[in-house]
Write a structure and sequence with these properties.
The protein is an alpha+beta fold. It contains three helices and 15 strands.
């Protein structure tokens, strides 16, 4: 998908989870919305290069949205957790994910489970359904190893068990790690951050839930699915 024209700046600080102060090239400091509920561990380094979008909607409290960050002066990461669903959806439509190709219909945000919504529901007929849950991976700790989650997530664990219920009902269920960090080469559950999530992932995989990881190609102009990555459970 294409970004609107992004504006480069430098991160001064992130605070109250959803706010970030960013210095623009002309020296002006703006407050931008930070669309990320996680810890953003290692993705909020002081004075890192960042890119923001600007909305012309007069009803918005904050005109700017933080989209990308440069990590360790080397890699790009997308911190807007609303984008991976769109990126994966676009890739499915374009048959860029072989494991998810061949379905006749594709719907977003379909109600299922316990008051949840699945990111993508794929179908060929009413009997052949595939539930796809997308998670954004941006935590790189060492040697290309990426981790999810970057903070304890009860909601994420709930989603795993809901996927398992879909398998028990005779459907297909896929956990898709959308790796929005150009330095990550493989993905693991972050047992050192959320051991309950790591255990739940192993448990649901044994029931037939599938797991995939695809890395994105990121520039200040676009973000798109690039290649499949391995997932290791330990």
């Amino acid at each position: 998908m294409q970004f609107p024209t992004l504006i480069e700046g430098r991160l001064l600080k992130r605070y109250k989870r959803f706010l970030s102060d960013i210095e623009l090239p002309d020296g002006d400091v703006i407050t931008a919305h930070c669309p990320n509920t996680g810890s953003m561990r290692r993705c909020q380094q002081e004075y890192a290069r960042v890119w923001v979008s600007k909305s012309d909607n007069p009803k918005r409290k904050l005109a700017y949205t933080w989209e990308l960050v440069e990590v360790d002066d080397e890699h790009l990461a997308c911190i807007n957790t609303g984008l991976p669903n769109k990126v994966v959806g676009e890739a499915i439509q374009q048959d860029l994910i072989p494991e998810l190709s061949g379905y006749a219909a594709q719907k977003a945000e379909v109600k299922y489970g316990n008051s949840s919504r699945i990111d993508w529901l794929l179908s060929s007929d009413e009997e052949s359904l595939c539930y796809v849950e997308v998670k954004n991976v941006t935590l790189l700790e060492e040697d290309g190893q990426g981790y999810f989650p970057d903070a304890v997530t009860e909601r994420g664990r709930k989603h795993l068990y809901e996927l398992a219920e879909m398998v028990k009902a005779g459907h297909r269920a896929v956990l898709m790690f959308c790796v929005s960090h150009t330095g990550i080469e493989s993905v693991k559950p972050a047992a050192h951050i959320d051991p309950k999530y790591a255990e739940a992932l192993k448990e649901v995989l044994e029931t037939g839930v599938e797991v995939l990881a695809y890395q994105t190609q990121i520039t200040p102009r676009s973000i798109s699915i690039a290649r499949k990555l391995p997932v290791y459970l330990s």
